[in-house]
Amino acid sequence: MTPPRGSAPQRRDSRRQPDRSREPDRNRDPDRNREPARAALTIVILAAGQGKRMRSDLPKVLQPLAGRPLLQHVIDTARSLDPASIHVVYGHGGEQVREALKSEPVSWVRQSEQLGTGHALQQVAPRLADDDRVLVLYGDVPLTRSSTLRQLLERAREDALALLTVMLDEPTGYGRIVRDSRGRVRRIVEQRDASKRELALRECSTGVMVAPARSLKRWLARLKNDNAQREYYLTDVIAMAVAERMAVEPLVAPSATEVLGVNDKAQLAEVEAAYRLRQATELMLAGVTVIDPARLDVRGTVEAGRDVVLDVNVILEGRVKLGDRVRIGPGCIVRDCEIGSDTEVFAHCVIDRALIGRACRIGPFARFRPSSSLDEGVHIGNFVEVKNTRIGAQSKANHLTYLGDAVIGTAVNVGAGTVTCNYDGANKWQTHIGDGAFIGSGSMLVAPVSIGAGATIGAGSTITSDAPERQLTLGRAKQMSVPGWQRPKKRQP
Ligand code: UD1
Ligand code: CA
């Protein structure tokens, strides 16, 4: 069998050492040297398929990958290519899809009946300007890298169609790429229409292609559905291009992962695993120690300093920034946080929207609800909940405490079981605790209330009015003992 002509996967070290032999090629990149008006890039994302095999009430393209809809990932990739426009073909019952992604800068095109990928693209055809370059993507193929698509775009010309293919050991279900004896792509044959010989081919169609709009519109208008599935196949345009002697430039995807499609929950998990590994690898190459890359989930963007360590089963969500030598223990969820250098988060903490200073110690089993900030050297220990609270440097709340809507100074010690009673059933109130205050264990601070700097609150106090600076304040029933008291005895039946 003739080896495919598509480029081999790029070696990793080519990133570090620019490959001079590629430079003249880069100058041909239409985005660089040509006036953009001549070949504006239009991206079409096909997302009208029903996704029956998901067996879910949620449309397939809204199924979450790393916490965001599949289609969102594809739209993000499309946007990274800076196209003139993005069209999303959505289907019957797809109003939910439009609603979920309504803030995206895309135009929505309805395909009311799903008569095939070619038919889907036909719905967009009237909106395509003849001079456009059209890149076709799929709403259920979320892991294609922008760099791969850029390579594909480089191969497309006014007189050449570029086609992303993939080598698969298990090609069942995919359209096969049929090449001639000289290795030129001739056509794509779908699984259900393929002969035995064709079924043995391992090079498959990803469906992703770039074509000049003028030709594409002509081909789409001529598609027929005389095939096993009675569908209008987009993939049939390849043979039409060949018949018109237009060049078909294949690019073999660097990895099968990039073109994995999601049709059922098993494939969804497969894609999630691939995404997980990709994110973890990125962090590791940036110097982060990841104890087990299969047990780290990055569902957002992470910026990490030097010698950061992430233990197993950590989930990082949203925007997370970690300073140098930050350590996150096992089982932690960190969402939209900034954590300063040398801070250690012990096992099983949930930290949501907090700004944590340098050299803090958090957990195990601590919970931050949104909007808290900690200065340097703060300790928040086990079973402590912190919400909308500012805590000054070197302060400590080491055990079993609720700090909500509080402003806490520096070097404060909050004893075990302290509660800021911030809610009166209707409104939330603030608690202020001055620098160097000591709150005895089991204290209820009934807000609004202020504890002066250097004040000591006796253990077990219920504090309902402000406590002055540097004094001992107690608010508890006086202890008494009853001499001669006898325990009651069990009654005889
Ligand atoms: C398609 C390709 C096949 C390729 C495979 C790669 C065709 C005919 N076949 O097959 O060569 O190997 O992708 O994954 O193109 N869609 C619509 N409207 C429709 C039908 C589909 O928008 O009427 C959308 C789907 O939402 C999906 C995409 O097009 O995002 C692909 O459709 P699907 O039915 O999954 O095609 P495959 O059979 O996988
Ligand atoms: Ca598919």
Q: Major beta sheet, specifics?
A: 22 strands, parallel
Q: Globular, elongated, flat, extended or rod-shaped: what is the shape?
A: elongated
CATH topology of the largest domain: Spore Coat Polysaccharide Biosynthesis Protein SpsA, Chain A
Question: Count of DSSP helices?
Answer: 10
Low-confidence stretches: 1-28, 33-37
CATH top-level class of the largest domain: Alpha Beta
Question: How far apart are the termini?
Answer: 97 Å
Beta-strand level of the residues, as a percent range?
25-35%
Q: What would CATH call the homologous superfamily of the largest domain? A: Spore Coat Polysaccharide Biosynthesis Protein SpsA, Chain A
Number of strands: 36
- Seen as an oligomer or otherwise, the chain set is single chain
* Ligand species: uridine-diphosphate-N-acetylglucosamine, calcium ion
Average pLDDT, rounded to a whole number, is 93
Structural class: alpha/beta
Instruction: Indicate the CATH architecture of the largest domain.
Output: Alpha-Beta Complex
In short:
This protein is of the alpha/beta class. It contains ten helices and 36 strands.
Characterization of this structure:
The protein has 493 residues and is of the alpha/beta class. The chain folds into 2 domains: 41-259, Spore Coat Polysaccharide Biosynthesis Protein SpsA, Chain A (Alpha-Beta Complex); 265-473, UDP N-Acetylglucosamine Acyltransferase, domain 1 (3 Solenoid). The strands form 5 sheets. It has a 22-stranded parallel beta sheet that branches. Strands 5-4-1-6-10-7-11 form a 7-stranded mixed beta sheet, sandwiched between helices. The radius of gyration is 31 Å and the shape is elongated. The structure holds uridine-diphosphate-N-acetylglucosamine (UD1) and calcium ion. Uridine-diphosphate-N-acetylglucosamine binds next to strand 1, helix 5 and strand 10. The site of calcium ion has 3 residues, from loops.
